[in-house]
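Pasting as-is:
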Amino acid sequence: MLINPYELGRQPFALAEPAALLKRKGFAVTCLDLSLQKLDPEILEDADLAALYVGMHTATRIAVQALPRRPTSASSGSTPP
């Protein structure tokens, strides 16, 4: 899963190039543009890897807000073994 938070439908080369290279190596690659599509947490459940391209400050802020949160052992009150 390659995620682009803020390019308004124009896939940046920094995302298109790794997508093409991974596809040539036989990987199933999905690209997601958060300015046009909503990030469904279920999509991430099926992904072995998720990578973000954040080319500018606005993209970073959008990505941080869009990513699902998972509780950590510290936030859930449990202690690690």
